[in-house]
């Protein structure tokens, strides 16, 4: 039996959730994707709406979102999930980067919806948290392993300028995406500077 936590969902419901016991990362539980789906189903939380924001052979980005109307107030919640060779560790994940990006977006959104951010990560997050390699990215480029793939925002701006510019023009509402737009804008300013 895992740890019992009291949470409030984004839909306003108060819940007692028993986190599955298993892997711990710091003070947070790592929840398997299927366990997260079960928790959301038990809490009667539907799957979020998903949208493909970007796809290339170098990177895939999905957005998962909810629009919640509570007490006459509408709130938009969104999370992104990304996948690139730099953050995919297994052969299966590398073979299906779109599936992994989608899974990450959904898992992040369900963790937010369930009110579990202070308590848990999804197993799809672990690849983002663990270092992919002990070698610096310059060495990876020298080895040619990621030669044609952007593995940083600098690389994205340099190698996929059209996407970076189109992303800057998207209307976004989440703090993460707004911050990402600001960083990409700074990278362009540095590039042009």
Describe the structure.
The protein is α+β, with helices and mostly antiparallel strands and 193 residues long. 40% of the residues lie in helices and 25% in strands. β3 (24-25) and β4 form a beta hairpin. α1 runs parallel beside α3, α6 crosses α7 (161-169) and α6 crosses α8 (175-192). The chain is globular, with a radius of gyration of 18 Å.
Topology:
Layout lengths: L3 E5 L5 E5 L5 E2 L2 E4 L1 H10 L6 E7 L4 E11 L2 E11 L7 H5 L1 H17 L6 E3 L3 H4 L7 H7 L9 H7 L1 H9 L5 H18 L1
Parallel strand pairs: 4-8
Antiparallel strand pairs: 1-2, 3-4, 5-6, 6-7
Most strands sheet? 3 strands, mixed
Uncertain residue ranges: 128-151
Through-space gap between termini: 56 Å
Number of helices: 8
Q: Note the beta-strand portion.
A: 15-25%
Core attributes:
193 residues, alpha+beta, 2 domains, three-stranded mixed sheet, three-stranded antiparallel sheet, 8 helices, 8 strands, 40% helix, globular
What's the gist of this structure?
This protein is 40% helix and 25% strand. It has eight helices and eight strands; from the N terminus they run E-E-E-E-H-E-E-E-H-H-E-H-H-H-H-H.
């Amino acid at each position: 039996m895992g740890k019992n936590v009291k949470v409030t969902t984004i839909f306003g419901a108060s819940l007692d959730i028993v986190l599955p016991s298993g892997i711990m990362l710091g003070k947070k539980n790592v929840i398997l994707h299927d366990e997260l789906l079960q928790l959301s189903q038990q809490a009667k939380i539907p799957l979020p709406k998903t949208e493909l924001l970007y796809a290339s052979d170098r990177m895939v980005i999905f957005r998962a979102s909810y629009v919640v109307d509570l007490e006459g107030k509408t709130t938009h919640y969104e999370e992104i999930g990304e996948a690139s060779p730099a953050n995919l560790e297994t052969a299966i994940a590398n073979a299906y980067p779109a599936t992994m990006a989608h899974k990450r977006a959904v898992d992040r959104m369900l963790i937010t919806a369930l009110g579990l951010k202070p308590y848990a990560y999804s197993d799809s997050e672990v690849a983002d948290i663990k270092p992919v390699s002990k070698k610096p990215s310059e060495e990876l480029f020298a080895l040619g392993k990621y030669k044609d793939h952007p593995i940083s925002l600098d690389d994205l701006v340099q190698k996929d300028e059209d996407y970076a510019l189109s992303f800057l023009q998207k209307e976004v509402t989440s703090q993460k995406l707004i911050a990402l737009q600001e960083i990409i804008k700074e990278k362009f300013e540095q590039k042009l500077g």
